[in-house]
Amino acid sequence: MDWEKLRSLFINYLKEHLTDIEKGFDEFIERFLRQLASEGFTLTPELEQKLTDYIQSLHQSLYSEIYSILEIAYHKGKFTLPKDEFILELAGQVIDYIYPDGLNLSQRLWKWGDETARGLKEVLRRGALQAVSVQKLRYELQYALERITNEQFRIELAENLPKYLQNVVNQAKLLGPENRAFFEKEVSRAIKKIEKLKQTESIANAKQLIKELDKALMEQSDEMIERAVRWWLYNRQLMRFKTIAQTELANAFHLAQIRATEEDSDVVGYQWRLSASHPRTDICDVYATINYGLGKGIFPKDKVPRRKPHPHCLCYLIPITRRKHHREKEPEIDREVLLKFAPKWIQRLVKEEGRDILEFWDMEKGKFLTRDEMDNTI
User: Fold this and answer.
1) What is the pTM of this model?
2) Each residue of 147-164: pLDDT tens digit?
């Protein structure tokens, strides 16, 4: 089998799927925001149900794509198992795998969906508080104006708000706990500026100012909430779901590669090859340089990692056939590679105290020991 060609097919399929997810999510958010705005940015039971239904559709879509990946691999490979048995077996391994947090894929997706809804409610709650702050600003400015309405003054509105009022509006755009002080400061400055204006025109201009400011601030209040909702759903929750989807689809393809050849007596192991998109040194560099006596980066069949070691991993396996010089031994691990992505506290112990970095590496789990785990081994 041409594994390089099959992997290229998988990568193209994955890219198309992730693009479809992003496009669908974007379209959903646009529809959701329009209805949310029509409800005064209140998450009604109907809107909450729409969000729940869409999240559930993403869950089902991911399960379907896992089955599709396995079916493609089955048709391109040579398997002794019947197709349905092969697909169900490997899909079960992907979906039922228990992560270190004690959750399987279904539970992780459920948790993601629950956090999406709870986070959205918090975004809207903060948006409501921001709208209240904008309302407070309007009342404060109106009060400042009304205190001097018995006298006349001139305000040049032109096409835009005066700069001192635009500063208030700009702070309202960013209104939140972290910049509350800046907002209040601009409000104070605006009020003082109004009180010092030349009193040369009619009260009509004062009323016009209130009207213009009211419109500018309230429109901005809605826009501010919309931006916050879009950021939460799109930038945070879409990216998180895409990470889950890419990782699980890659796990499905990874398992299919192993299952396709593990019963072939001519195959002695699998070589771990780095993806061209591999950005920095990590555990994959260890896998690509480890030596069990079969060659660089080649794992014996019973020792090959059966899952991707980290999210977004697109590194891949190539089955290796038996050769005369192959003789399995204890693995040799490149200490310099390990040191590059070790936690700083381990790097310090290795460099300053001359400790062997392999003391801190759990080969079976493919990860560094934590401080607590190190303490328990002493």
Assistant:
1) 0.74
2) 544 443 334 333 445 566
